[in-house]
Specification:
- The structure is a single chain.
- By secondary structure, the protein is mainly beta.
Length: about 280
């Protein structure tokens, strides 16, 4: 009896020793949570410095149904651009110059009612653009900022409207300083000027002018000088004299034969048709 029991135990132990091990779980059975996902671009905290350091170009706008808001894209060559400065938002490339107040509280960006100039535009779509801006870009919007070489700002309204804006560094950000405000009178006609790299170059003729606190000209204008570079943002029309307010920036370590200063248009102060510069 004892011998039979020992034999049975030996057979059982041998069977256990020969039993195959349970195979490891296949990769397909691995929970998805353990598979690392492709990292997304980080979302940065939003503050006024980030907003003020960029121009925000409207790349896309859709309603709650995902339909593009076409009324906001009346100018294919000049998309809407928002600038956030000193608690105000200014809208560029609309029919009229538009601006309003804004506040930022965490991830909530609130846009106030927009005030605008009252210029009429001949293109009906461009004229309707101002109304579309006032209708869609208003109130409390949820803001998210995608960081990167080109930051992306997403604004979402309570009604489901969603706006995607691409950040372009402002001149102050690009040149590393606030710049100096100067007024330049731009003569009606450019003149030939000598440039080592550009044969037959035509240069704008400019001179610096000054205004008092009441906006009246004061002092004696400087001499007319050729400007060997463009004024960024300013389009000169031959035969039209302008007075422009510009920001003048120092260029750090400019290449040889390149200007050491940059001029960026702030606003056109005066404009009239004139065949020749004033004496």
């Amino acid at each position: 009896m004892k011998r039979f029991a020992l034999l049975t135990l030996s057979v059982a132990l041998a069977a256990c020793a020969r039993a195959p091990q349970e195979p490891p779980a296949s990769p397909a059975a691995t929970p998805a949570a353990t598979t690392p996902a492709t990292p997304a671009a980080p979302t940065a905290a939003i503050d006024t410095a980030v907003l003020g350091g960029h121009h925000w170009v409207l790349d896309n706008a859709v309603d709650a149904k995902g339909q593009r808001i076409d009324a906001l894209f009346a100018r294919a060559d000049k998309p809407l651009r928002l600038n956030f400065v000193d608690g105000r938002v200014a809208v560029e490339n609309s029919c009229n110059r538009m601006s309003g107040r804004y506040t930022l509280d965490g991830a909530t960006l609130t846009l106030g009612d927009m005030a605008s100039t009252m210029m009429a535009c001949t293109d009906p779509k461009l004229m309707a653009l101002d109304g579309a801006v006032g209708e869609h870009l208003k109130g409390a919007l949820t803001a998210a900022l995608q960081s990167g070489a080109t930051p992306v700002l997403t604004l979402t309204g309570a009604n489901g409207d969603a706006f995607t804006l691409r950040g372009e560094p402002t001149a102050q950000t690009r040149f590393g300083g606030p710049g100096e405000t100067v007024f330049l009178e731009v003569a009606a006609q450019p003149k030939p000027c000598s440039h080592p790299l550009i044969p037959n170059k035509q240069c704008l003729q400019v001179r610096e002018v000054h205004f008092d606190e009441k906006g009246l000209r004061t002092g004696t204008p400087g001499d007319w000088q050729p400007l060997f570079q463009d004024i960024e943002g300013f389009e000169h029309v031959a035969g039209t004299r302008n007075v422009v307010r510009v920001k003048r920036y120092a260029i750090q370590n400019p290449p040889a034969d390149a200007p050491s200063q940059a001029y960026v248009l702030d606003m056109v102060v005066e404009s009239d048709v004139s065949e020749a510069p004033r004496p």
